[in-house]
Structures are given as C-alpha cells and as structure tokens.
Amino acid sequence: MSKLYDVIILGAGPGGLAAGLYGGRARLSTLIIEKGSDGGQIAITDEIENYPGQVLEGESGPSLIARMTKQCEHFGCERVSDTVVSVELKGDVKKVTCNNGTYEGKTVIIATGAYPRPIGCEGEKEFASKGVSYCATCDANFFEGFDVYVVGGGDSAVEEAMYLTKFARNVTIIHRRDELRAAKSIQEKAFKIENLHFMWDSAVTKLYGDGILSEMDVKNVKTGEVTHIVANEDDGMFGLFGFIGRIPNSDLFKDTGLELDERGYFITDDNMRTNIPGVFVVGDVRVKELRQVVTAAADGAIAATMCDKYVNGLI
C-alpha cells in the first residue's frame, strides 16, 4: 500500500522549500517533488541584497537555496526528483503522477513558479545575470550610475523603467511600436522623468560582451536600420531589462478545475487556498502584486500552516 502523505509540494523554489520547512516542523509527513535543481529562478541569481537576514558579506541565489534545502532535510522532508505528468486534486486523497511513480497526499501545495518571457534576441541566455535581468526590484542596485535599457511598453515595463531611473544614470525604453501600451496615467508620469528616454519602433536583436554585457544591436522594425550600442568607456557595461510578461507554469493544471485568471495564474485567497479544498498555491505562479523570494517564502509558510489545519480538521 502506497504511503499517504499529509502534504505533497510540487516545486522546490523558495515557496516550496519554505512550505517544506514549515510542514516538516509541524510534524506533517511532507514530500517535495522537483524535476530540476532547487531554487527556481533565484538559483541563477549571482547576488542577492534584499532578503531579510541574508549573509551581508555576499549572498547568491544558490547559497541561500542551499541553506533552505538543508532546513527541509533537517525537519524530515522526503524528496523525489521527477517530472509531474498529471494530477487528481478533487476528493480527500490527492494523486500526483510522475514519470517514475504515483504519490498520494491529503493536501497539495503547488509551487511551480513562473518565468520571464524572453526578449528573444541572440545572446540573451549567455548574458542572463551578467547584464540581462528581468527584475528591477531585485537588480536595480547593481546598475547604480550605469546606463540601462528596458524592453517593453506595457504597464509593468514602464513602471519598472521609472523605478530604475532612481538608480541608473539614464534609462531607455526600447519598444516595438511608436507608442506605449501602458495606461495613460503611467505614461504621463514617465514622460516627465528627465533621465528616461525612448527608442520607438525598435527591437534588440543581438548582445555582445566579454563575459558581461557591453554591446548590443537594436533594429528599427520599420526601416531595418541597425543601431549598434556600446557601453560607456568608463563603465564597461550596461544593463538590459526585459519586461514583456511572465509565463506561469500552470499548463498542467488547466483541466483540474482549479481557478486561473486570464493570464494563467492561480487565484487564491490570503491563506493560499484555492477553490478546491486541500489544494494550496504559493509563489510566483499565483495572482499577486510582488514576486520576490521573501514573498514566496511567506506564501509557503502560510500554506503549510493551512495544510496542518486542514489535515487536523480545523478548517
């Protein structure tokens, strides 16, 4: 007879690991399933500055996640490295089927995350975290006094660009169209900022640099003219931020009865509960305003606490 876990956690990013820590510490039998490396998006971040209690002398995504993983092990979380292929979430017993086995739990916490929609230019992967970023809140400090370019024209792109102007010497929005898609109220604020500039009808096509981003090609989509941008000689580099949307890892769950918004993010209440009893969602894959390690960890702590209450018949 297969083991019936109190909680099965899908994903080992900050939200999933925090849930594992709280679940294990509450003496819940806890299983974490992760198909790749622990950490999700944060695992490729070279430097972290804004996580409370981090190592001030230097904290990277991998170093922070490694400690979270050890905490889960310390409190008895079981681990499976496998890919989830289907789930059955309704009823008292939830079933999670992977390539190499099926697991059953009284509750499930979905922590599958989201990933930035890529800019789509040559060299993008090579310079990720080496000049290319997708999070102004995370990385703005690293570009203080430098030139920064932002790809996108919607609300988030313009808002993030305005945030970056507080740190960068100059910020330039590169947009494929000749006008922004952002709300008029946001545009009005943006156009008043002196160090915020615009390249219209343009798309980044190629990135260059010796280990760090220092040059790029920007093509005018109407004329075909290519502008080659080179970093300031004294700087030796510049920043490129992509804000053309994020893609939630929720496709697997679209036919399960779970409520999703129009973009594919899970809808939860403040206690991470979904519309299916015993199913909770944490981190970047749920509808929320701020997607950061600290908010994912908070989500995980709340969800695991709610699982404890659910298993013990308190909710």
TrEMBL record:
Gene field: trxB
PROSITE patterns hit by this protein: PYRIDINE_REDOX_2
One Pfam family linked to the record: Pyr_redox_2
Gene Ontology molecular function terms on file: thioredoxin-disulfide reductase (NADPH) activity
The entry's keywords: Disulfide bond, FAD, Flavoprotein, NADP, Oxidoreductase, Redox-active center
Family of this protein: Belongs to the class-II pyridine nucleotide-disulfide oxidoreductase family.
Origin: domain of life: Bacteria
Top EC class, one word: oxidoreductase
Name of this protein: Thioredoxin reductase
Domain FAD/NAD(P)-binding: 5-300
InterPro entries, per the entry: FAD/NAD-bd_sf, FAD/NAD-binding_dom, Ferredoxin-NADP_redctase_2, Pyr_nucl-diS_OxRdtase_2_AS, Thioredox_Rdtase
Cofactor: FAD
Catalysed reaction, written as an equation: [thioredoxin]-dithiol + NADP(+) = [thioredoxin]-disulfide + NADPH + H(+)
EC number(s) per entry: 1.8.1.9
Cofactor note: Binds 1 FAD per subunit.
Lineage of source species: Bacteria, Bacillati, Bacillota, Clostridia, Lachnospirales
